[in-house]
């Protein structure tokens, strides 16, 4: 009998297994929301006199109202919430948060995703690591089984469009960047994913490029290499030493030049890194077509460009950190 994180599969699930070949990004089904609600109820420790859950959910609601720019959570909850939880031993903040989770409209899918991410993040603060890891595993399993194209990694919701790319490139790169010395690059790559989720494709490409450059700077600084100014081959003078530059002022071409002159690299590796940097900068300079001549419809080309940029950056970051970091 097949088992997953939640236990043995039902007969109906074994009889009609569902395979999601394409992920969904702009809706969270009622079934998935209800499953998330049940897992929160099951996995959060409960004690009669414990106010931990109440305080946590109130903080989540406070943060949501601040970020969404409303006076209080009632502006986010359109109908009475208390009828839904009659007989349930829940505090008022829990009822309000769970109502948002279960009853927000399909068009408010970003609110639902924000709430799920905030719950994950706050559980890691209010509860121990085991509770946090179990809840994140449950969330990710629910996403996977319902064909929802997101995964929670280190308390952050990440978009994934391809299981192999996500598991072999995106996830490992974020895990490597979670080391304290890579905090800046990690923040920029996470911001790229956040921008992608919100449809800010140009910003996503720019932040992916920043994460790549930050990774190079951190590696150069860790190895105590003197940054070298890149001079095109046609302008180089024979038998002269390459000019130096400051790390803060170094651009991608300088960083790649510094890397390749301090280690033994094949020419194709240098060309590949330089090409990747040029590609990201070219993509970022393209006009953001969303809202310009195409109404509110997101161009499929914009999405594909953005995915390509983020995955390319993540691939090269993974290579750099594994090899030289």
From TrEMBL:
Coiled coil: none annotated. Residues 9-172 form the HEPN AbiJ-N-terminal domain. Residues 181-322 form the DUF7014 domain. Transmembrane segments: none annotated. This is Abortive infection protein-like C-terminal domain-containing protein. It comes from Exiguobacterium antarcticum.
